[in-house]
Structure formats: structure tokens, C-alpha cells
Amino acid sequence: MPLQVGILGANGYGGAGLVSRLLAHPETHLAALASRQYLGQPVEAAWPQFAGLIDATFVDADDAVAACDVLFTATPHGATAPLVHAARSAGKRVVDLSADFRLDARTYATWYGEHPHPQWLDEAIYGLPELHRAELAGATVVASPGCNATAVILALAPLAAAGLLGSTPSATIVAGASGAGRGLDLGLHYAELDENARPYKVAGTHRHTGEIEVVLGRVLAQGKRTATHGQRADVRIAFNPVLVPMARGVLATALARPEGALDGSTLLERYRDFYADDPFVHVQGDLPQTKAVASSDRALVSVRYDERTGTVVAFCALDNLGKGASGQAVQAFNLVHGFPEALGLRLEGVWP
Known about the structure:
28% of the residues lie in helices and 19% in strands. The protein is of the alpha/beta class. It folds into two domains: 3-145 and 324-336, NAD(P)-binding Rossmann-like Domain (Rossmann fold, 3-Layer(aba) Sandwich); 147-319, Dihydrodipicolinate Reductase, domain 2.
């Protein structure tokens, strides 16, 4: 029998990505799609692409929790924790796409404020399969990573595992507008976004900064196979995002200056070895492009060594709605339940 799956926030971009992937997943049945904005309306009212494919109307959160075995929460941080509390209290597993269970209570308070339901934090496993594959098996709460954090972590994790981050690594990302969600914002209006590039939440103010530092600190302390609640080293990163006029995609350019001599000719092979068993990360000689991963669920990674300055320059491109959100959540869901990792997912991008 297929697992009965519910999605909260199914009217958002992340929710639509989950619907698309789980609709094609042979081990799941979409038992409930929840939305406050579209409550009682058919799914195609929010998403015309599903017209004739899903005979369902949007329900409220309580009905979704009652109808499902596993709940995906694609809802805002802060508002999600009470929903996870209700689901776990009812004995349901949760895959959470918000930030509410990615951090310990103290770190969460630094970036988001006091956690409303910290009693569930010890259950939460960070849902980046490349670092937590073994830990995810049987998890009751999966904290799916942020899209920007995923790109930077995948770019720098091989360096962290080898102790090559240096004192203060840095990362700049360019990101598409869908990363901000489906809500209305002046800076996301077409006339404001088109033919424009705009830095935002720079100089240590972007909330994904804390997530990046925590995860890289774990890799630095533990190596690749990390434990979510295990030891971590202190890492500080200079993280600066830039919004660019594209609908979807993230390209991270990360810099590290390791101490001592480094053989730059071995870096690419070091990265290939690190991700050798990870089907959703491809390490390549060519520099990655966002269009190559558009609508896909994998990341493209590459690395260079600047001998003049002793700087390692690492790159990661991914689709913020695929490997950065819904695709990664379903990838982790597959690992939780012992399904083939790629079930319901796609490796190839859409070009053009």
C-alpha cells in the first residue's frame, strides 16, 4: 500500500514542487493538500498545470494531518513549528522545508527568535543526504536544508572535511526570484527585477548564514558522515547573496584560503572522491551553470585553485526549487523510508 502523504503550504512554489514529484512517486498517494489561501478550492485554482491530473480540493492543516502518514510542511518559519508539533503528537512523520528544525534552540534563537516547540529538536535530522544519508533512515522529523545553504555547503564541504577552510571562508550567491516565495514584494515586481542585480541581506544578516556555519562546523569536526546533534567546530563565513533576474536557480561562488601549501592539481579529484557515492551531486571540470540544473533535483559542483593568491574557488549550481527545496525533501523522504534514492526525482535539467 502506498504511503498516505499530506502537504501543508501546497499553494507555494515549494508545495507545487512536492505535488509534482509525489504525484509521480510510485510509493505515495497524495491524501491531502492544505492551503489557507485556497481553502475549499480545487488544486488547479492555484496551479493550472495540475488541471485534470489531481481531483482534489485544498483542505485545512488539521484535516491534512489526520489524513496522512507523512506530512510535508512547506510553510513559513515560526508558523511551521506548531504544525510539526501537531503532526508529531499524532504520531506522523514530518519532512519540514522551513527553517524551524535545522538548528539547535540556542542558534535558532540567534537568527529567528525563541523556538516555539524545542521538545522536537532532538528528533530532527538535517536533511542533506550527502552528509546525513545514514542518519536519515527511519527519521521521524527531517529538517530539509535551505536552498542557499545547500549550494554553499556542497561547494565547501570537501574543504571542511579536509581541514582546508582557512580562517574565514566567504561565499557569494546569485539567486533567482522564486527563492523569495510566491508572496508580494516590491523588489520582486517585474519592473524592479528585470535587467537588475541587487545585493540583499548582506554582511552577516542573511539567516542562512547560521545554517551554513553550523553544518560546515560539523563537517570540520566530524568529516563527511556527520551526526546532526554531534560535535561541531566553530566556523564563521562571510555570506553575501545577490538577487538576479531569473525565475529559478542558485549559483554559489565560495572562497577559502587554506593555511600552508596546497597542491591545487589534486583538488578536482578530491571533490570527485568526496561525492563519489552521491547521485545528486555531479563534480565536473567545466564551471557549472544554473540553466544546466533548471527543474532538476541535482547539483553541479566544480573547483579551481588560484595559485597567485593561494585561494580555493569552489562553485555549486542548483535549482532552488529542486535540489534546493522540493527535490531534496523527497530525496530525504526516500532515504527515511528505504526507497530508492532517486524515486520520483529527475537528474537532467531543462535546456533551453
